[in-house]
Write a structure and sequence with these properties.
With 246 residues, the protein is an alpha+beta fold. It contains seven helices and eight strands. A five-stranded mixed sheet has the order 3-5-4-7-8. It has a three-stranded antiparallel sheet with strand order 1-2-6. The chain is globular. Belongs to the thioredoxin family. DsbA subfamily. It comes from Williamsia deligens.
């Protein structure tokens, strides 16, 4: 499917705010994977994944893309529905990104990761929520996805506590206008495996862009990390004022 309309996305940690990104350990440590603790947070470091992000892969593995193909700025947004700081990011910058996309100034590619599965009560909430969002994106389009995306963060379960069943995720989708077919897609978990596959490829590209590190929330602009995304929408104002990518 083309970039222009593709609708798609136990290691313990101490969540703590860092600068604007990389707040969680991406589980699993092997010989080639080094867990690195930094002041204020935990990041994941893989010596295998250093290089440049592949823009074609980022386009193909986005859960949803909004904005015009010829918008002067393209960003990739990496989130996990179980991540508290992603919820903060959505609350502070979510609508600003949508407004900029509607105005033709921005193209946004959403990547829904799932590395916080282990920190959910069910052990797979991040993947199931990502699969549910994919069902909504593929059937309901961008407007419905964005409403559901916001609702999933608004209703975010506590880490380690009870989280929604697939039936409850479907009911949430119904509340934002999802069809019965979409609700069935969510209830059955039909898109969970596809969401996991997209998440893994998106994570690989994110790790390459960050020199072997990865975390959420992260925003890449033309493949490079944007700083200050947890400090309100000022980062976006700065980005849009920069015409260097036009």
């Amino acid at each position: 499917m083309s970039d222009s309309r593709r609708p798609r996305v136990s290691a313990k940690y101490q969540p703590s705010r860092t600068s604007s990104r990389a707040t969680y350990l991406l589980g699993g440590v092997a010989v080639v994977v080094i867990a690195v603790v930094v002041i204020g947070g935990i990041i994941w470091n893989s010596q295998r994944d250093k290089g440049s992000a592949d823009q074609a892969v980022l386009a193909q593995n986005a859960s949803l893309i909004i904005g015009k193909a010829d918008a002067p700025h393209t960003i990739d947004v990496f989130e996990d529905f179980q991540c508290p700081y992603c919820k903060q990011f959505e609350q502070s910058s979510g609508q600003a990104m949508v407004n900029a996309a509607d105005a033709g100034k921005l193209r946004v590619r959403y990547h829904i990761l799932n590395f916080l599965d282990r920190n959910s009560g069910s052990g797979d909430y991040s993947s199931r929520a990502a699969g549910a969002a994919l069902c909504v994106a593929q059937a309901g389009g961008s407007d419905q996805f964005l409403k559901y995306h916001t609702k999933l963060f608004t209703d975010q379960p506590a880490e380690g506590g009870d989280d929604p069943t697939n039936a409850e995720l479907a009911a949430s989708a119904k509340s934002v206008g999802a069809s019965e077919q979409t609700q069935q897609c969510i209830s059955s978990g039909a898109r969970v495996d596809a969401a996991k596959a997209d998440a893994q490829q998106s994570l690989t590209q994110l790790s390459k862009a960050l020199g072997g590190n990865a975390g959420t929330p992260t925003v890449l602009s033309e493949g490079k990390p944007v700083e200050g995304v947890l400090n309100g929408p000022g980062w976006l104002t700065t980005l849009l004022a920069d015409d260097s990518s036009s």
